[in-house]
Amino acid sequence: MRGSLVKGKHLRKVVYKAVAFTSLLALAGLSVSLYKNYFSKSKYEADEDLLQHSRRQLLSGGEHSCPDVQEWESAGGFVLIFGGVLYLFLGLAIVCDDFFVASLESISEALNLSEDVAGATFMAAGSSAPELFSSLTSLINPNSSDSIGIATIVGSAVFNVLVIIGVTGVFGGPLSLDWKPLVRDGFFYLVCIILLFGFFYDGEISWIDGAVLVFGYVIYVSFMAINSSVFAKLDSWTGSKKKEDDVELAEMPKAPDVAFKFQQTVKVTAIVHDFISRLRPRQARLLQTQTRNPLIFTQIKSFVSDDIPVSSSDCTPTEREDQEAKEQEQAKEEEEESNPFEYPSVGTPLDKFLWASSLPFYAMFSVTIPNCSKPAWQKWYPLTFAMSILWIGGLTYLMVDWVNRIGCILGVPAVVMGVTVLAAGTSIPDALGSIAVAKEGQGDMAVSNAIGSNVFDILVGLGVPWLITTLQRGEPIQVDKDDLFKYMAFLFIVLIIYFSIIFVNGRKLTPFSGFVLISIYGLFIIYTILSTVLSGLG
């Protein structure tokens, strides 16, 4: 019952945010289309130029043509397509969170990767899978613009910095941030932006450009492999680590009283289990792989796992039995939460509607993808990985194609659709996860992950598709450099604003700072819409 309610609330949040955002874009696109086709022209000219205008707008983002718009689509059928896109967003969130990330975690454990390397490779791939496949799909789909995948990556980067970090500050602030991961992630992200500026300069993407990004990712992973030792060396030079650990460990019990230690152990165990059980699978793994101070978490785990002799006068067998019963009940609740087919007897009508809406996806995924997070299927993680890839690829292909179709119907450029609708849609699951983590006091981890995921999106999400496609085609990829240059400039400005806010406040992220970042994203959306309107009028 509890699991179904949690699942329903998660689905409701996804739909709320996705509907609100895509409705805004639909209204803006419809307004642009109506103005250009009915107010600025005669009815005859509007009907004559509608398809040509849509094709011309889409062709500005690449070589592919825009399919003919059907009469039912122009008459309002695009609303149904929007609904389909929202439904695909839900499917992507389910397959990534419940299956793909679990397989990547198993692969990381099988390869015995360190936490830093696993977080920068397989865990990052699980978090950024929609963006990666959107980029690849836009290049292999004959009806899609080559630039829509690039725009999705760029728009997702803006969303991650402004919205994800913004909501982290609002719900988790004020937060004191460690300067070392800030500088590390900021440096690599700045290098990525500079590289993209250079690649877009001539409006062509060659295989060399893709190879440079892939090689840059190899360098990034290599650094992450020695990240802990580098940070430790920096701490030894500055002495900051010792001070930080002393503060965080000061409240841990050190008295020789074993009864007191047992009581504190029970409390810490309950806190850790309760915290992790509240998170969805991705956030629970992120806590262990990307937290700013893994030493503290490791010491807590070691502390609660010690075999502690307990005096019978201070802790009776009845108390131990009660504790075991609570743990068994908690395990049962966690198992119920992992069962998506349980009817939510408790919850609002909307919760039940969303539960019913998710059933087709869960039915298809459960039949075709072995759930390696369950003991019976743990050894099947390679098949889980492969089948998840196929599902993500198929859903993303449809999503990009339908968003591209909406752009054709409304006369909205492919770059605009990618940088807004696709970017927000593929990033909403991460945003919801960051909110949950921030509420539990782990906002520092969410901030670091937001910037780090942008590095992966650019180096891998663009580098791999560019390299594969250019080698397969035997010719460069043509992109709309004018529009992309504007968005790249905005990426750079956003990065400067973000670091200015953080360091001016003494490396603190406050709720006010969060509201400022979210407001800037609102201005970004307004600018995107207005530039589309003015472009149409011109």
TrEMBL record:
Taxonomy of origin reads: Eukaryota, Viridiplantae, Chlorophyta, Pyramimonadophyceae, Pyramimonadales
* Domain Sodium/calcium exchanger membrane region as annotated: residue spans: 84-224, 381-529
Instruction: Give the keywords, sorted.
Output: Antiport, Calcium, Calcium transport, Ion transport, Membrane, Potassium, Potassium transport, Signal, Sodium, Sodium transport, Symport, Transmembrane, Transmembrane helix, Transport
Provide the family line.
Belongs to the Ca(2+):cation antiporter (CaCA) (TC 2.A.19) family. SLC24A subfamily.
For membrane topology, the record states: Multi-pass membrane protein
Q: Where is this region: Disordered?
A: 308-342
Bilayer-crossing residues are 14-35, 75-96, 148-170, 182-201, 207-232, 380-400, 406-425, 487-504, 516-537
**What is one term from the GO cellular component aspect held by the record?**
plasma membrane
Name assigned to this protein: Sodium/calcium exchanger membrane region domain-containing protein
